Amino acid sequence: MLTLISHPLCPYVQRAAIVLQEKGVAYERRDIDLANKPDWFLKISPLGKTPVLLVDDEAIFESAVICEYLDDTLVPRLHPQDPLQRARHRAWMEFGSSMLNTIGAFYAAPEETALQARATEIRARFEQLEAALSDGLYFDGGHFSIVDAVFGPVFRYFDAFDAIDDFGFFASLPRLATWRDQLSERPSVRQAVKPDYLERLNGFLRARKSALSQRMSAAESIS
User: Fold this and answer.
1) Where does a domain end: 55, 73, 91?
2) I want to staple 152 with a disulfide (CB 3.0 to 4.6 A). Which of 61, 100, 189, 211 is the partner?
């Protein structure tokens, strides 16, 4: 039995969970409190981060490494067989990780000027993605890949952001909008989080005391 050490809001955990679901393998998920990390967790996670995958007595840390291990050892394969295309997919996986950093800067922006700057940066990244997408339902057309597992958690943030205000992130980006919608309906993506995920995420965003949380308060007072 595989064990995924996780945190309910961590997008990097979600990508590992998505790949596990796509592989159809049985696994146990064990959540920890990252604000109060147990000693046993710090012994198996040198960076003190989730996810960690326990394979028998061996701990594998870092989400990209976990996804690569699962794809090397379990079918169906999610990476392309062609080495050049596989390298391209890995590059866009890194792009997805970079986007999570930009999203973090967006929801933590202390005032409106910084919030707008980060929103502009997200939009620019999305325009790059739009140009890279193939025609079809997924990143590379009709085949679900690890790139899709990486971006499912990225797009999930925008379910919360869109309810706060219209930032125009997806306007006039039809391929990206189709991809986002398709991933949101994929069973593995839906099952990567618990039913109360959006409620937990909104609570996390409110607690930032940021420009975005101020917009949340304004939107809630109107409704």
Assistant:
1) 73
2) 189
